[in-house]
């Protein structure tokens, strides 16, 4: 039942192609995905400490790719090891490549598990590179009359391009065929290996012929036909240096050709027929995602089981790393810079006040400037300021280093240590820049402004209160939430046709990475000043689009004003009682010990409960429980879906294991993890609110994530009790009551629901009475539970199978309840159909306040992907509308409290709730002020209602 429900309700995942489709094999260059994901995302760990940033990026990229591309066959191809047959041909082949970074090495196995979780074939073979296997499978499949698409932009694979084989650039989502190869190498695909043999490849240590580059090699091969024809004619070549190089290095050229030629005769690890595309098993995929802690992916794919707003598990996006997605959800044509656009680069390094003065004058004259900071940390509240960059016009930017130390030495003890570069002191620079950055007549343009504002307000000499500001990230997000990512690098490539210098380029990677404060000033300037330059150019391009895109009011009145509000909330933080956390952790540990005893008794012996392998052996080998399935590695599957299925059949052991896992997760994530986040300076935790991550406009919370503490469980309530008020204060919680259902009644204009909300009736009891034909006083607990489930489920496009699973009833009975619901409330079905139609016609839907929410896949041919997009189109206006209502309340709240003479501080926003720290003597006045603001921010057909409580801790405030 669970599998059927998940398959029908969710998958934004791979769908089988139509039976009549011609054979089509997709070969994904897995190694390329891995390294792109690793370098695109900042460090992130699972609760057990295992690094998973590459796993998250890879999983996200693969999920997005599978939603966009259908085929009859598919495989992800990996490199099995560093040593291949090419090392026997040339022992220096790839010899200079460093070992994988230590944070990446443990992720390789998990990435293969991710591939298997998507039910996609995983291909690798010792002694051969992934490119060889791709060549072999392409030849084999083409021989069967099929078409082949290789997902990679690797130049080494371009030799495979021919009528039946194409490449697909995973970033630009553009096919690479013969014209693109000709543009890259100057020759047709069948001559690529000859050009590479001459030019060599420093990346792989392919020697080639010294002094011959790609253009020269292409000209020579075009003239002489192929490598052997050229070498035979070498003595007759007129240019002396070229002639001598070809004669002297002829054998190296032949070796190079053997190195770059892919082995299309490589043995196939699996027969082609085993690469048939299959949809994933939702339970298995959900189990893998839960194990890694990828909650945002669980929700986006509809596999979380709980309709929670999506969150982002990644770290703070300081360095504007590109989104790990393969491509924008609905990409526009790639922009190219204007012919007369100012070039990037040639920026100035400012090391003294006299040199800074003309830049300050230029910024005042322009009235607008790009601004960016460089620091030593992603944590804005602890980061040290390393430098500031400003731009006054496209191509006119500078970098002011403030915290650069000596560059790393060469390790020679006899050499004198490098000296720190000459630069301004932070106090001197702040004194010079503060009047400009606080000048209301000069607009400061930043990207992800909240981070920079927090850093600069902590600078020396009392800090800088930067204002006014524009934020290019939020300008883009206001217009195109859900359409693509909003990192600076991605927007630059999309709108400016320019790929900025990457952070890895200037600092290195892995063990070789150095802090930005040790980067040489010329490299630091090129990187940092370019950020300010790109930001200013993006502003010039994007800001004028706000009005015609009907997003100006949203940006000016909500998103831009949220920057300062969230900055102050993050700086304030919330106090945590470490002793109470320790008591909770001890209690959880004791309960886990008791559960462990029970589990061992039920198993008949002791074993490691945290070991999926040992658990599988107990359940399926020893206890012979039904329904077990082995993975490709031979181990039994024991993810949450498997255990839930066994528990529903009445087996006690799986239920106890689920309880043990839940406690273990809460203990590591919300007890130990939270304790580690307490700032020793103020005993508070300072979460980071990500402003442009979700597709619906909702905020997400990271480091720590305070939005995913369980709401309805006793364990979650206990954890909330560890969040406390300062002495003399209380915590006040204000929660919008049933906001999404109120938006449903508003948008669908349902008279009976509007009447129930207007009278303050229990909406679920009223729904039960309406759809089950009951008198109001005859609605029992079970009828209300069913009505509540469908009220909330309908917003998320719940199917009959989903409702049946939630209520524990047959699908036919669930279908009759849904039919009765739509019969009683026809306006809801009409609104759902209108939203789907709007999404298909325009590519987006609108919130009640006009924000565009772009819907990926709404025109997809694959039924599963299109169905998922339709459910997203139905849900988006409710989540998006709720997000905008609470944001409107947040931007009005500080002024309302100030005008009322109240000292309350807004600390947190969690879904539809705001949390305040309030002096004990101002509780009633603050509650009234908060209620007035929250209930008055929007005029709907039904009243908004805020439920308010207070207490010494967060738990008591509910």
From TrEMBL:
Database matches in Pfam families: 5_3_exonuc (PF01367), 5_3_exonuc_N (PF02739), DNA_pol_A (PF00476), DNA_pol_A_exo1 (PF01612)
UniProt source species: Teichococcus coralli
Coiled-coil spans in chain: none
Ranges for domain 5'-3' exonuclease: 23-278
GO molecular function: 3'-5' exonuclease activity; 5'-3' exonuclease activity; DNA binding; DNA-directed DNA polymerase activity
Gene name linked to the record: polA
Taxonomic classification: Bacteria, Pseudomonadati, Pseudomonadota, Alphaproteobacteria, Acetobacterales
Boundaries of every 3'-5' exonuclease domain copy: 347-547
Low complexity bias locations: 321-340
Family the entry assigns: Belongs to the DNA polymerase type-A family.
Region Disordered: start-end pairs: 303-340
GO biological process, one term: double-strand break repair
Functional description taken from the UniProt entry: In addition to polymerase activity, this DNA polymerase exhibits 3'-5' and 5'-3' exonuclease activity.
PROSITE patterns: DNA_POLYMERASE_A (PS00447)
EC number of the protein: 2.7.7.7
Subunit structure: Single-chain monomer with multiple functions.
Record keywords, A-Z: DNA damage, DNA repair, DNA replication, DNA-binding, DNA-directed DNA polymerase, Exonuclease, Hydrolase, Nuclease, Nucleotidyltransferase, Transferase
Name of the molecule in the record: DNA polymerase I
SMART domains reported in the protein's UniProt record: 35EXOc, 53EXOc, HhH2, POLAc
Listed InterPro entries: 3'-5'_exonuclease_dom, 5-3_exonucl_a-hlix_arch_N, 5-3_exonuclease, 5-3_exonuclease_C_sf, DNA-dir_DNA_pol_A_CS, DNA-dir_DNA_pol_A_palm_dom, DNA/RNA_pol_sf, DNA_polI_H3TH
DNA-directed DNA polymerase family A palm domain span: 716-922
Enzyme class name: transferase
Reaction it catalyzes: DNA(n) + a 2'-deoxyribonucleoside 5'-triphosphate = DNA(n+1) + diphosphate
UniProt key word DNA repair: yes
Keyword hit for Ribonucleoprotein: no
